[in-house]
Amino acid sequence: MSSPPPYLTVRLIGGTNMFEEFYCLKHTPFSRDIPTEHLYRSSMLEEILGRLEYAARRQLFAVVTGDCGTGKTTTIRSFKNSLNNSRYMVMYLADSKLTPRHFYKGLLEQLGCEAKFYRGDAKRQLHREIELMQGIHHLQPVVILDEAHLLDKEMLEEVRFLLNFRMDSKSPMALILVGQNELWDRLKLQSYAAIRQRIDLQCKLNHLDRSQVGEYVKNHLTYAGAEHDIFSDNALDEIFKFSAGAARMVNKVCTHCLIYGAQNGKRIIDDHMVKLVIQGELN
To answer: Dihedral sign, CA of 30, 36, 38, 41?
Structure first.
């Protein structure tokens, strides 16, 4: 691997938060905490959000999968914020070592309850709390399990058992599993057939294409307050090539380029600069 250009390494030391001032930006354009209403809404994202909102309304079992960096957590954040708090109670768990007991404990704690010790007791306790929530507060529960590709078979089986309610006549909640593509690869195995048959909706996040990467970058810069294009078309070509359309990698290379551009007095970032940044900082 070739060494980074020495001037690039030296000039990127210190002052990494100053590019907003140099480009006259009001907000940081490619950060993780952009409000959901300002996120780039591709047609794919719009479709998935519509499916998830339907799952919440009808209390369905949905699975959301995608490669690393394609925006799974961002999608779930957008989905959660789109739900009416007066109609839905969202419970979120993300634990790679989640066991059935800790699953019920985590959900009950979010409902303000102390979970009973034994799994069966905690499961019945959760069902009672959900019935109270629906009957008294008229709230529909939505349970989101993130990083679900890391769950073991016992935990996935417990999810299936949880959905057996009133002799299988009614689902007690909307349940959404979110994970990398290997989750769906596992669910397609014969040994997971009983779980797979329970799934009502499958949503897959794909990588952005070149046009969408351009729209993504423009959208985030507009949110930040940019009054003109900062990245040239050729620069966007290089960003797309490097990121392969993964939003997380687009964020990373764009941020590095803005830092480099500001510290070298470049108002417009071209493809040559993107290549320098990738070679010096990201390879």
So the answer is: positive
